[in-house]
Amino acid sequence: MALGARLEIRQGQGLVITPQLQQAIKLLQMSNLEVEAFIDAELERNPLLQRDEADQDAEPAAEADGPVVAEQVADAEARADLDATHDDVSPGERATGDAPEAAADAGGAIDWSKAGSGGSFDQDGEGFEGRLSRELTLSEHLQAQLSASGLSPAETVIAGVRIEAVDESGYLRADLEEVAERLGCEAALVEAVLGVVQGFDPVGVAARDVRECLMIQLKDQNRYDPAIAALLDNLPLLARRDLTALRKICGVDDEDLREMIAEIRGLTPKPGAAFGGEPASPVSPDVFVREGAGGLWHVELNSDALPRVLMDHRYHARVSGQSRSDQEKTFVADCLAQASWLIKSLDQRARTILKVSSEIVRQQDAFLAFGVQHLRPLNLKTVADAIGMHESTVSRVTSNKYIATPRGVFEMKFFFTSAIASSEGGEAHSAEGVRDRIRRLIDGETREADVLSDDRIVELLKGDGVDIARRTVAKYREAMRIPSSVDRRRMLKEPA
Predict the structure, then answer these.
(1) What is the pLDDT of residue 425?
(2) What is residue 64's predicted lDDT score, i.e. its pLDDT?
(3) Structural domain includes residue 306
(4) Among the four residues 177, 214, 320, 486, which has the most C-beta atoms within 10 Å?
(5) Within its chain, how far is the Cα of 7 from the centroid?
């Protein structure tokens, strides 16, 4: 059989995801903080985009067909990053706010009151006042004590390395032998320096585990003796409330054991928690739900969490008319296409969030009115079929999005719960509602005789029409960090 090359034409169908479509999909699953960061990057890259800084109460000059973003024709001055490529643009057409050096070259006086980060303490990093008012981190607090410790230069280096390995809770997360090998020194020296660091404030810092942390604090209080040392060596028994075994191991009576347990409860298992750390990202709701007249629920987008991006058509017309080379024309055309697509993607994202959240509220109106016990089973397919979208789109919309309701702020994923069949053949129960029932049953235990086993909880739930297995009850109980019935009896036995 002879082999040869030939040219054929075939017709077929295929799905091609364009870069613009990929961008729209990414925007859909971003949180509002991630969208803000993405918009800031686009504003830096695309000179045709600008943020709408006008008063939200004022009517914009021209709005797009959407509640979120608009295209506006603005009479803007030429920008330095594009105008620098055209020799025929006069200096008077440059954007205002040039650097002080440019003003000096032109012979004008420099207004240092409007200087940037290099000329103002208030704008340099976090600012002078910010440095004074900001809460110290644990690392900064330890470094300040290290500077006044009087250690030798070599010991100071070792101590600095150990401090860097202390986490936010105050525990040391680096192996001693590894540090000694990396620094080329004896392990005994590293151990001795660690003892100095463990003497810093807060008491218990730089411990390698909970036992060592509690031991350091007890030694500082001069309360570390053989009996309490034996108690620290058997913390798992204390967690299980096995007081009988602890009395035998520690060699003490009931009264002494209670005092020792009270002393341990008065200690701090996380000594570094009192110091500042990285600021947590605030949760800003994407949607507000408010109760209206007649028991209706009004769903509206949080306008503060939705960025308004404008496109300057007049500026585009100006720079496109001055473009000379093909490279410049291509750049301006690409910026125009990207700006237009971004505005449309943001508008579509807002519309989709509003549509999905409105259907979630419609499905879970009983929860909003009566509480978690009335939370209905709900999955992505139910919402997707109701609004005519794909399940993957609903999944992306509900990721990292929050709804503010009269009952609190919830992630959209909270409203999607699995179904537990009814023993009476009626409407199924939501898993979250069943968890709430289990929690309330256990919270009602006030005496040792009232403690409910998992089997007893199953019987009570089946009496309420919930068909649930014992292993499911145990799984829900463990997920809520509720001890077993044996441990709960021990807790009720223990005197207050």
Answers:
(1) 63
(2) 36
(3) no
(4) 214
(5) 55
Asked whether 468 and 423 are in contact (CB, 8 A), the reply is no
Give the end of a domain, one of 274, 297, 315. 274
Tell me what pLDDT residue 15 has: 65
The last residue of a domain, from among 226, 250, 274: 274
> Alpha-carbon distance 107 to 170, whole Å?
57
Number of alpha carbons in the 13 Å side-chain half-sphere of residue 121: 5
State the sign of the Cα–Cα–Cα–Cα dihedral 316, 317, 322, 327. Answer: positive
Average pLDDT over residues 2-31: 79
Using CA atoms, how far apart are residues 119 and 454, in angstroms rounded to an integer? 68
Q: Which residue has the tokens 């045709």?
A: 48
C-alpha–C-alpha distance, residues 243 and 80, integer Å: 76
9-18, 226-235, 283-292: least confident range = 9-18
Q: Is the pLDDT of residue 148 over 90?
A: no
Q: What is the mean pLDDT of the chain?
A: 78
pLDDT recorded at residue 132? 45
How many CA atoms within 13 Å lie on the side-chain side of 169?
A: 11
Beta bridge mates, 301: 287
Number of domains within the chain: 2
For 206: left if phi > 0, alpha if psi spans -120 to 50, otherwise beta; the answer is left
DSSP state string for 392-440:
HHHHHHTTT-EEEETTEEEEGGGG---EE-BTTSSS-EEHHHHHHHHHH
Residue 122 lies in a domain: no
The 10s digit of each residue's pLDDT in 265-284 is 899 989 988 886 555 566 78
Cα–Cα dist 428/418, whole Å: 9
How much is the pLDDT for 359?
94
pLDDT at 487: 83
Round to whole Å and give the CA distance between 297 and 291.
Answer: 5
Per DSSP, the three-state class of 294 is helix
SS3 262: helix
Rounded distance between C-alpha atoms, residue 405 and residue 414, angstroms: 12
Look up the domain containing 196 and give its range. 138-274
54: Cβ–Cβ under 8 A, 6 or more apart, which residues? 60
Per the domain annotation, does 344 fall within a domain? no
Using alpha carbons, select from 132, 125, 44, 493 the residue that is nearest to residue 309: 44
What is the model's pTM?
A: 0.55
Please tell me the distance from the alpha carbon of residue 433 to that of residue 93, in angstroms, as a whole number. 65
Give tens-digit pLDDT for 63-73.
333 333 333 33
Q: Is 276 helix (H, G, I), strand (E, B) or coil?
A: strand
Give the CATH number for residue 467. 1.10.10
